[in-house]
Amino acid sequence: MKDPSRSSTSPSIISEDVIINGHSHEDDNPFAEYMWMENEEEFNRQASLLLKQFLFIAQIEEELWEEEFIERCFQEMLEEEEEHEWFIPARDLPQTMDQIQDQFNDLVISDSSSLEDLVVKSNLNPNAKEFVPGVKYLNI
């Protein structure tokens, strides 16, 4: 059955579709969109709370980026150490007394004629006073 209040000649109008001066019939208060200002203090408190949360999250994010950066620096440092050959005493120092003696002999000048040539060609003054650190000498 048909509803007698709805006739086929009159258009069907739903109350939500009717808007007068930018407001629907249900919204009798033309300032409804500004009603949040009624509770402006609560709004400001919530906004302040959200801002504090945002700043806290930003600070944590910055700390995480910093930790990641430090971790990458340490990783690069370890990779550099692996690339370069470093002094390792167990590997690089001689193990026996013979090896130490051989290295010591390589350092000593064994030819006496080359030693005399070195002394003759020297620019050092053999009559100079012995240097003592921290003592000032007066030139007389």
Automatic annotation (TrEMBL):
InterPro entries: PAIP2-like, PAM2_motif. Acts as a repressor in the regulation of translation initiation of poly(A)-containing mRNAs. Its inhibitory activity on translation is mediated via its action on PABPC1. Displaces the interaction of PABPC1 with poly(A) RNA and competes with PAIP1 for binding to PABPC1. Its association with PABPC1 results in disruption of the cytoplasmic poly(A) RNP structure organization. Keywords: Cytoplasm, Translation regulation, Ubl conjugation. GO terms for biological process: negative regulation of translational initiation. It is found in: Cytoplasm. It holds the Pfam family PAM2. This is Polyadenylate-binding protein-interacting protein 2. Belongs to the PAIP2 family. Its main location: cytoplasm. The keyword Disulfide bond does not apply. GO terms for cellular component: cytoplasm. The lineage of its organism: Eukaryota, Metazoa, Chordata, Craniata, Vertebrata. One of its GO terms (molecular function) is mRNA regulatory element binding translation repressor activity. It comes from Lanius ludovicianus (Loggerhead shrike). The keyword Metal-binding does not apply.
